[in-house]
TrEMBL record:
Residues 37-390 form the Leucine-binding protein domain. SUPFAM superfamilies: Periplasmic binding protein-like I. Residues 1-34 form the signal peptide. This is Ethanolamine utilization protein EutN. The lineage of its organism: Bacteria, Pseudomonadati, Pseudomonadota, Alphaproteobacteria, Rhodospirillales. Belongs to the leucine-binding protein family. One of its GO terms (biological process) is amino acid transport. The keyword Transferase does not apply. InterPro entries: BCAA_transport (IPR051010), Leu-bd (IPR028081), Leu_Ile_Val-bd (IPR000709), Peripla_BP_I (IPR028082), TAT_signal (IPR006311). Keywords: Amino-acid transport, Signal, Transport. The keyword Endoplasmic reticulum does not apply. It comes from Oceanibaculum pacificum.
Length: 398
């Protein structure tokens, strides 16, 4: 798993942003023949500091979509058409994009991106309009556990309440940290993890010596880190996307504090290594899939397809933000299978089909099943792996 070299990665950000605009323009000015296609949408960060996440999700969805279309499509031969919209990591823009997909493009269902606050904002709309919304990255617990009845929100991704258990367990086992400090982004995603990490620490006998918050725009976090150091933190648990996380690492470097950092996966969706510098390699973080090591037949097929389609992918280390790629690939197949089973693009029929799919051999695992009427999360703590950066690549922890 990993990113392209720095110069290529910068080009990827420019290409992702321009590609999002170009594809949006194509979708707006070239009408899709409804009788021949089934429209599916994507609301994700296609520009800005998290553009890599949107590109990774797009690649995973595209590889799966091309497989499905080449095999004859769905609903008796209809092809899937993917229509993307850029949320710019902004909840308001995410809702506007979702509304456009639902009311103007009339998508049968749509996928979500990296940002939990954006997904939280979209969830009520999806449930009100009865259009299935499939998360493939954002991990906020309340995205799927939103108390709606019926619930049209599903996820092929990690969930904070389970990730938090894994992060605390790793800090305890790998770094013998019985005292940890929390560094949390000050938004609903950070709040979701504060609840989960507090419960996980208590359950595992680990003391939280301090909880510090920071804004996405902060460039100096020495004050927060100093308080955690003075409180005796033996490891830090970090919840943030790439850019502010990099500022935290640079603040640690200015302090000369070499404390182990265990992070949620937001750092893998942007320019973390470029912005944070060499210390980035010391940070351990969580993923749901690795393209390194022995691969299943599906894993080999997907990696071969990525290398054939994208010139920057020469091997497993070049797969950008692998978690987005892998989650999106499985999500597209599961959703297409549900639409086929439903026999229509009616939202309620698709929801019921997702809840009763049965077994599915995916990239990440075999789903037995992916979802039920009471469980809309396809992955659990058994599906997580711990990784780190090695240069610009993401590799499993030794």
């Amino acid at each position: 798993m990993g990113f392209a070299p720095t110069s290529s990665r910068r080009q990827l950000f420019r290409s992702a942003a321009l590609g999002g605009l170009a594809l949006a323009a194509i979708a707006a000015f070239q009408p899709v023949q409804a009788q021949d296609t089934v429209k599916l949408g994507l609301v994700a960060a296609l520009s800005g500091t998290s553009a890599v996440s949107g590109e990774a999700i797009t690649r995973g969805l595209t590889i799966a979509m091309e497989e499905i279309n080449a095999a004859g499509g769905i609903l008796g031969g209809k092809k899937i058409a993917l229509i993307r919209r850029d949320d710019e990591s902004n909840p308001g823009k995410g809702v506007a994009a979702a509304r456009e997909l639902i009311f103007s493009e009339k998508v049968a269902a749509f996928f979500g991106g990296i940002d939990t606050p954006v997904s939280f904002a979209i969830v009520p709309l999806a449930n009100q309009q009865k259009v299935p919304f499939m998360g493939v990255w954002a991990a906020g617990t309340g995205i799927t556990r939103n108390k709606a009845e019926p619930n049209y929100v599903f996820r092929v991704s990690a969930m904070d309440v389970l990730v938090d258990k894994a992060l605390i367990a790793h800090a305890k086992a790998k770094f013998s940290a019985d005292q940890v400090g929390l560094m949390l982004i000050n938004n609903p995603w950070g709040e979701s993890n504060q609840v989960g990490l507090t419960a996980a620490a208590e359950e595992q006998g680990v003391k939280i010596v301090g909880i510090e918050k920071f804004e996405a725009s902060d460039v100096d976090m020495v004050a927060q880190l100093t308080r955690l150091k003075q409180a005796g933190a033996k490891s830090l648990i970090l919840v943030s996307n790439a850019a502010p996380a990099a500022q935290m690492i640079k603040s640690m470097d200015r302090m000369g504090w070499d404390v182990p950092v265990v992070s949620h996966w937001g750092i893998s969706g942007g320019r973390f290594t470029e912005l944070a510098g060499p210390t980035a390699e010391k940070v351990h973080f969580i993923q749901t899939y690795s393209f390194f090591g022995e691969q299943s037949p599906t894993g080999k097929k997907v990696l071969d397809a990525l290398m054939a389609k994208y010139s920057d992918v020469k091997g497993p280390g070049d797969v950008i933000a692998p978690v987005g790629t892998a989650n999106a690939y499985d999500a597209m197949h599961l959703l297409a299978k549900a639409i086929d089973k439903a026999g229509s693009t009616d939202g309620d029929a698709i929801r019921k089909a997702l809840e009763s799919l049965g077994s599915h051999q995916g990239l990440i695992k075999t789903y037995n099943p992916a979802f039920t009427a009471t469980e809309h999360d396809a992955l659990n703590e058994k599906d997580y792996v711990m990784v780190r950066f090695k240069g610009d690549q993401i590799v499993p922890i030794d």
